[in-house]
Amino acid sequence: MSMTTPIVDFVRSYAKSGTARLHMPGHKGQSLLGFEPLDITEICGADELYAPEGIIAESEANATRLFGTAHSYYSTEGSSQCIRAMLFLALQGAPQNGKRPVLLAARNAHKALLYAAALLDFDIRWLWPSAQAEGALCSCPVTAEALTGALHAMAQQDNTPFGVYVTSPDYLGGVQDIPALAAVCRAQGVPLLVDNAHGAYLRFLPQNCHPIAQGAAMCCDSAHKTLPVVTGGAYLHLAHDAPVQDEAAVRGALALFGSTSPSYLILQSLDACNAVLAGDYPRQLAQCCAALENLRRSLNKAAAARQCPVPLAVAGAQQEPMKLTLDAAALGCTGIALAEALRRAQMECEYADPRYVVLMFTPENPPQDFERLQTALEQLLAAVPAGLPRPENRAGEFAALQQQAVQRCTIRQAVLGAQVRIAGDDLIIKGVGAFTGGEVDSHNDHRIAMMAAIAASRATGEVVIHGAEAVNKSYPDFFDHYRLLGGKVTLEEE
User: Class of the 6-279 domain?
Assistant: First the structure.
């Protein structure tokens, strides 16, 4: 497929034109790091990202054809911008039932989701890993049965989420069963929203596994994570059945959460990537995936020969092909220690936690990267002592966390309210000008009840204190005196 690169062509032509740059940015094209001649702003002819009519519109149309979507939009601020815009758009279809809007989301979501919830002020009902799940909080496989049950439970409470939100692939490379989840969402009339930040390349596998192709209504891709795009380049993809199709509305949502000075370096990178994807990239991608699969098999064969308690390389149908996730328990060490060992061998990993190490490959990795990694891991395997115990299943810990996860305030209140931390014997409080209101349980402590009442005097909304009668322990007239000072109090029996 032939592919134009209109943004790249325009900027290069401008850089060579000798035009006096009497506009931003301040470097005026003079090289400090080398890229400055190609770093421009929204000048005449360069189009506008949030109201494109020229070269950006043409380039996005190219990306839309490549991904097979209803429309693919560019972001120069990563998937974080796309996530906020996607949720803003989905929120427009929230049920008008007088209740706070709720999103049903898998618990391993990126913090960008929490920031979006704080900004847009919606609640989240969490989907947790099953009691049998083994892994880390980075993973949260959701079955169609579990999703159906969660939606039915919400329906019994006369509550319908404005969307179902899953992360796929997750940080450890786990992939959700998007077709099955999409079928459930479609049957319930709820849009499926996918954080596909790590999976832009899935469209170009021999079997198209991109979330949009598998039934998602909207998703975001971080192009810079797995495609040859500079950091910050991302896409917001809409399916043909997305709840919002109006282009102006989508552009408005992206603009709401984006800078008015988008990076033309990133836009050029996204534009140039179109030509790469339309060329030999699918074949190179298939080769890279095959090389990684061979490496997994080789490592696990070597681990089995050393009688390691678990496979060294995480494998299976629910793993994305371009991540190599290593289980350090196979070597009898932590993921942190394994990452440090690889670092000493001049390899930098993407992620490490107490158990796992994540290595990200693309077709841009030369063969020697594979060879260096295999050599280093085989040396580590050779030193593994016999009789290592199997790692402990932590599913119980996740179940305990779920039991503790009782909502006591909105996410907006948690993120934007007063911040408290403990440092040794000190309680350090970073205050705010006012509280937004909410609910407090005194737990039969008179001090907490009175403190909450005082805090309510600086709240913009209503504060409900459960167990307010606890003040009788030390100050029975507290609320009478509170009224005399101008406070508004309504006492109700619970």
Answer: alpha beta
What was the pLDDT predicted at 425?
A: 72
Long-range contacts of 50-59, Cβ-Cβ distance < 8 Å, separation of 24 or more = 50/251, 50/252, 50/254, 50/255, 50/258, 51/251, 54/6, 55/6, 55/7, 55/9, 55/10, 56/7, 56/267, 58/4, 58/6, 59/4, 59/5, 59/6, 59/7, 59/267, 59/270, 59/271, 59/274
pLDDT digits (tens, 9 = 90+) for 87-119: 999 999 888 887 899 999 999 999 999 999 999
Whether residue 403 is predicted with pLDDT greater than 80 in this model: the reply is no
- Name the 3-class secondary structure at 456: helix
Domain boundaries, the chain: 6-279, 282-382, 417-484
Q: 282-382: which CATH topology?
A: Aspartate Aminotransferase, domain 1 (3.90.1150)
C-alpha span between 39 and 37 (Å, rounded): 6
Going by C-alpha positions, the residue among 355, 361, 393, 399 that lies closest to residue 138 is: 355
Average pLDDT over residues 46-59: 97
Of residues 344 and 419, the one with the higher pLDDT is 344
pLDDT surpasses 90 at 387: no
Tokens of 101: 């809007």
